[in-house]
Amino acid sequence: MAARYKLTDRQVRNLRPGTKLNDGGGLWVHCREGGSTQWVLRVTVHGRRREMGLGGIDTVSLAQAREIADKWRGLAKAGTDPIIERDKQRREAKRNLYLLEDVARDAFEARKADLKGDGKAGRWFSPLERHILPKLGHLPVTQIDQHAIKEALKPLWHSKADTARKALNRLGLVLKHAAAIDLNVDLQATDKAKALLGKTRHVPQHIPAMHWQEVPEFYDSLSDGTVVHLALRLLILTGVRSAAARHCRWEQIEGDVWTVPAEYIKGRLGRTRDFRVPLSDEAMTVLRDARAHERNGWLFPSPRAKNPISDMSMSRHMERRGLDARPHGFRASLRSWLADCTDASHEVAETVLGHKILNAVQAAYQRSDHLEQRRVLMQRWTDHVTGKSGALVRLAASDG
């Protein structure tokens, strides 16, 4: 074995440009023409000569260079290429420095295609942005554990339980994304944090709804033909969500059927399936009246006409009337009327509201949207809303 430790610190410091000195065992110090001096280790792995830099003499002393060289010689002797191993370790170290905020934003970008409007409304990311990232975003994602999550969510776990639940759910998806890009994260951290936080004491508050018996009087008051009045009328008559009514366009109407685009249907199912809404004679009248206000294709345009009216426009109208109920609550009014005044099956009644009631296997076989049964129900609901009969509705057993 060739002698080692041939050099002294003085020799290393006084090395002239363009020269090299051998410390033994493949360790060299090389002073380049430009004056920089580097440590270089030469080893042979599987008959192949490899040369790797160990750093400059300004940051790595002679003693440190010998210690580092011993480490890499040992790997080479065992048949491992030290350069490949070092690159691997550097990649792993880099992965461990991925900050939670960066990974969260990357996860959001990856999920945009599954979100309404590509997530532009911010509802998917905002629970993270407001409640997780300010406290944990600066940490490497590999350091996120149940204790850190618990401390971040503790202030709102009982006071804003739904928000905390959403933040926890989004964080779990971010950790799954981190695992998918090969980061060493704890995928059970959110479940563990939930166990540490305990059962929430928060009582959910439902959106205030008007009793179905009071809807006709309110509907009758929406008589001035303004955009807000007409939008509220359509919302009441059809039972759709606010977003669907506000974004209604005439090209969505074919005959007496309104096809609501998938992006305005809540839930993942809505990303792949439009929803047909049967329109009563009264609903068709409302839509024809709305065409007088049409701007940029919107039947219910905002004052600036670039976009449809906002949900707040309808909510504020009800606030100014001194009502506790809100526009979304008319869906609950309709659902209660269906339960109290019709014998519609649970499946048909839920379909009226566009709710997903089938699992993937059931949906593969049950493909009817019960349009004809819903047409009967929606006409009778219209009769009730406009002050006509609201008697018990009996339906045929099947659409056929």
Give structural notes:
Belongs to the 'phage' integrase family. InterPro entries: DNA_brk_join_enz, Integrase-like_cat_sf, Integrase_catalytic, Integrase_DNA-bd_sf, Integrase_DNA_bind_dom, Integrase_recombinase_N, Phage_int_M, Phage_Integrase. It comes from Thalassococcus lentus. GO terms for molecular function: DNA binding. The protein has 400 residues and is α+β, with helices and mostly antiparallel strands. The protein has three domains: 9-95, Integrase, DNA-binding domain (Double Stranded RNA Binding Domain); 100-197, Tyrosine recombinase, N-terminal domain (DNA polymerase, domain 1); 212-385, hpI Integrase, Chain A (Orthogonal Bundle), CATH 1.10.443.10. Helix content is 45%, strand content 10%. It has 18 helices and seven strands. It has helices at residues 9-13, 62-77, 82-95, 100-111, 126-131, 133-136, 146-153, 161-180, 189-197, 215-221, 227-238, 242-246, 281-290, 311-320, 329-341, 346-352, 360-365, 371-385, and strands spanning 19-24, 27-31, 37-45, 48-56, 253-254, 257-260, 275-278. The strands form two sheets. The protein has a four-stranded antiparallel sheet, covered by helices on one side. A three-stranded antiparallel sheet has the order 5-6-7. Strand 2 and strand 3 (37-45) form a beta hairpin. The protein is elongated, with a radius of gyration of 34 Å.
